[in-house]
Amino acid sequence: MKNSPIGIFDSGIGGLTVANAITKVLPHENIIYFGDTEHLPYGEKSKEAIQSFSRKIISFLVEKQCKTIVIACNSASSVADNSVLNSAKNTSVFNVIDPVVNEVVKVCSEYNIGVIGTKATIGSGIYTKKIKNMCESAKVNSLATPLLAPMIEEGFINEKISHTVIANYLSHSKLKNIDHLILACTHYPLIQSEINEYYNKSVNVIDSAQIVAKHIAQALKKRNLLSNSTEKEHHFYVSNYTESFEKSAQFFFKENIKLEEVNLFV
Fold first, then answer.
1. Is 185 annotated as catalytic?
2. What is the edge-to-edge ordering of all strands in the sheet holding 112-117?
3. What confidence tens digit (pLDDT) does each residue in 8-25 have?
4. What CATH number does the domain located at 6-95+210-261 have?
5. Is residue 26 a contact partner of residue 226, using CB atoms and an 8 Å limit?
6. 86 exposure class (CB count in 10 Å sphere: 0-12, 13-18, 19+)
7. DSSP letter assigned to residue 142
8. Which of 66, 73, 108, 135 is catalytic?
9. In CATH terms, are 6-95+210-261 and 98-208 the same topology?
10. What is the C-alpha separation between 242 and 223, in angstroms, rounded?
11. Is the pTM of this model over 0.90?
């Protein structure tokens, strides 16, 4: 069980930021990653559709004997109800929202907190609800930024178009006078340098991938599930093969990764 892999899934390449962070914090762990490229981006899908996709992917990861599963997608995390969690059977499931909220509430009474994410995540109000539940006096302002994830999936990073789109969103009145900005989409760490550049160090931009990775490490250690394996055997699955996804995975993990296409949705 200790040497079983960690299962991670997202609609696309965004979850690779979490997967990469986990392998850096936990270098002895093997991962199985599933990118639902057939249905990306999740942020534009209905709650019911995202839940249906999530149940099937989690069942697939359970079949692959993953010792724990990480929903590396804010949209999927925000709508993960009991029907989704129960599909994991006895396997523990982590989301990418709770670790970030737990980190942010340490300073919530003192600062203005901004949140950017997909329509599904922002529409759910999940960050505001969770932060307010733990810190009633918190000031939280959220903004849906639906163009960012598809822009990143298409490779528009550190270009004129990405600078323009990012500046357009971050200059919105809802984000005026914020002190902290939560990147409530696992795609967004890929443009964090551009976001930092826009704010010129005046705002603390919170990288959820690092926070989630450390949380997973602590949880596995507490449950005595840390791997002691010296063999690397990562597997990457997608619902629809794309060359750009394969290149992104290779960029993150600095190795010759081959995607395996699996159709879970017939």
1. yes
2. 139-144, 112-117, 180-184, 204-206
3. 999 999 999 999 999 999
4. 3.40.50.1860
5. yes
6. exposed
7. E
8. 73
9. yes
10. 37
11. yes
The domain ranges of the chain are 6-95+210-261, 98-208
Cα 199 from Cα 206, distance rounded (Å) = 13
The single residue of 66, 108, 135, 185 carrying the catalytic annotation is: 185
33: tokens are: 């990653």
What is the dihedral angle through the alpha carbons of 237, 239, 244, 250, rounded to the nearest 10 degrees? 0
For residue 114, the surrounding DSSP H or E stretch is strand 112-117
Tokens 């069980």 correspond to what residue?
1
Task: Examine the residue annotation and report whether 135 is marked as an active-site residue of this protein.
Answer: no
3-state secondary structure of 100: helix
Helix crossing, 243-253 with 15-25: angle to 10°?
A: 20
The fold of the 98-208 domain, in CATH, is Rossmann fold (3.40.50)
Distance CA 166, CA 140 (A): 20
- Token code pair at residue 234: 């990562």
Q: What are the tens digits of pLDDT across the range 69-112?
A: 999 999 999 999 999 999 999 999 999 999 999 999 987 778 89
Q: Which two tokens stand for residue 40?
A: 């990306």
Instruction: Report which of 255, 256, 254, 247 is spatially closest to residue 35, judged by C-alpha positions.
Output: 247
